[in-house]
Write a structure and sequence with these properties.
alpha+beta; Nucleotidyltransferase, domain 5; Gyrase A, domain 2; 6-stranded mixed sheet; 12 helices
């Protein structure tokens, strides 16, 4: 079975970021129209010789998303979603119909509240991105938030190098904005956008603004999760050039140790000369997409996925039915041939065996007769020997009748009825004639004497 090629895509204002497997690529965009994105994406897919079996994820940049940390007094999922719907109406400056929203449940605090990360994005942000996938026949599965990709990226980059603390921060600098993330208990705790990116940081005035924004963002994140005591901040993306200047600010004002993290794949990309673009999110999601990661679900994509799945099911069912019909037809033909062959052979055997049938019938008859004498318990000789021993002088036996498997009948006469009854009891008490019963008695004359005829049968 062919493995699916993992594709992670992120669209910036002027660049398209793509990771194919563990390789990364960036294509410039003239604009954000679907055609422009499609051409750039198609170029990257062709360069990497991607087939049709793709596992596609889309990353939505953090600067296009409004993020809130929300505490709700419930553990019930349906109730939480209802509460979030009300929260959207009251706290987000958009109409509910204008946005898509998603959330991640960070867990119950054990007292009263469930902690959640709520992400909200305008619908028109998705429109061009989703439309651009149609010409290249790609159906993205999850639409993810870039901040969570940073968490996965740091986990991958720190593996076998750095022991990650329970709580830490990540500062990712991209070309036009920066993202400060607080990680608590290995999960995204919260995230703040800083409007200055790598391009703006080349301007001293903008750099001063960036430093002020960064300090405010760190304070805001610490206030959101007071339990998260961070002592380390990891720099990613285009932040390597800012390491020295940031170290003094972080250490002096927040007692935070700064460390830049990179991966082999990102270092290889930097050798191309594009140093102002961060690929941390797409590489992070290429490393891992967790089951509880925040995901945007677009109705049109879900409908297309359902239709594609049902079409695949129908095709599989149709092919299966055709295969079954062919197999049944083949089996029927084979069985018909076998039956005809068997019938022909059987007919020949009947003709052949018919010649010996009479001889076999004679042998069977002789065997039946012989069987009567071979079985000691049911042999006629056994019965005759028993009668000879048990029959008294006052009983005269005139006739007996015996057939194998049937009742044994004795006829005779005596002068008195008690003699017949005693004889019957004697027979009944014996092992051979057990169950003997007197069927009838009848008086008659025999040579001027009165005698009583009887008939005894044994089952």
């Amino acid at each position: 079975m062919n493995m699916r090629t993992k594709i992670v895509i992120e669209v910036l204002e002027h660049y398209l970021k793509v990771s194919v497997g563990r390789k990364v690529a960036v294509e410039p965009l003239g604009n954000l129209e679907p055609r422009s994105i499609s051409l750039a994406l198609n170029s990257i897919l062709k360069q990497n010789k991607c087939g049709k079996n793709l596992d596609v994820s889309v990353v939505l940049s953090r600067n296009k998303i409004t993020v809130r940390r929300v505490d709700l007094p419930s553990q019930d999922l349906k109730e939480i979603e209802q509460m979030l719907g009300l929260y959207l109406i009251r706290q987000i400056p958009y109409h509910k119909e204008e946005v898509f929203w998603a959330y991640q449940n960070l867990g119950f605090d054990g007292v009263s509240n469930s902690h959640l990360i709520l992400a909200v994005a305008l619908k028109n942000v998705f429109k061009n991105i989703v439309s651009s996938f149609v010409p290249v026949n790609i159906l993205p599965e999850p639409i993810l938030m870039s901040s969570q990709g940073l968490v996965h990226y740091v986990t991958d980059a720190a593996r076998n190098k750095v022991t990650l603390p329970v709580s830490y921060m990540i500062l990712d600098i991209d070309i036009s904005y920066s993202d400060l993330v607080l990680v608590h208990n290995q999960k995204l705790g919260s995230s703040v956008v800083i409007p200055q990116g790598a391009v703006q940081l080349k301007n001293p005035l903008e750099k001063e603004k960036f430093n002020a924004e960064l300090k405010q963002a760190i304070v805001a994140l610490n206030n959101e999760i007071p339990d998260a005591k961070c002592e380390k901040l990891f720099l990613t993306g285009a932040a390597s050039s800012q390491l020295v200047s940031l170290e003094s600010i972080l250490d002096a004002d927040f007692n935070l140790e700064a460390q830049y993290l990179s991966t082999k794949e990102y270092d290889n990309f930097l050798s191309s000369g594009l140093k102002d673009i961060s690929l941390s999110a797409v590489l992070g999601f290429n490393y891992q997409v967790a089951k509880d990661d925040l995901r945007f679900i677009l109705p049109e994509i879900q409908i297309k996925k359902d239709m594609k799945f049902k079409l695949q099911q129908l095709m599989i069912l149709g092919i299966g039915l055709i295969y079954v019909l062919i197999m049944l037809g083949g089996i029927a033909l084979v069985r018909l041939g076998q039956q005809q062959s068997y019938a022909f052979n059987l007919k020949n055997r009947v003709i052949s065996l018919g010649k010996n049938a009479k001889e076999l019938e004679d042998i069977t008859s002789k065997l039946k007769i012989a069987r009567q004498y071979m079985d000691v318990k049911s042999s006629a000789l056994t019965y005759l020997n028993g009668l000879n021993r048990l029959c008294p002088e006052n009983i005269v036996i005139t006739n007996y009748n015996w057939e194998l498997g049937k009742a044994f009948t004795i006829r005779g006469y005596a002068q008195e009825i008690p003699d017949i009854l005693d004889f019957t009891n004697t027979l009944s008490n014996s092992e051979i004639f057990k169950g003997a019963q007197n069927r009838y008695t009848r008086r008659r004359k025999l040579k001027d004497k009165d005698v009583i005829d009887f008939e005894i049968f044994i089952k």
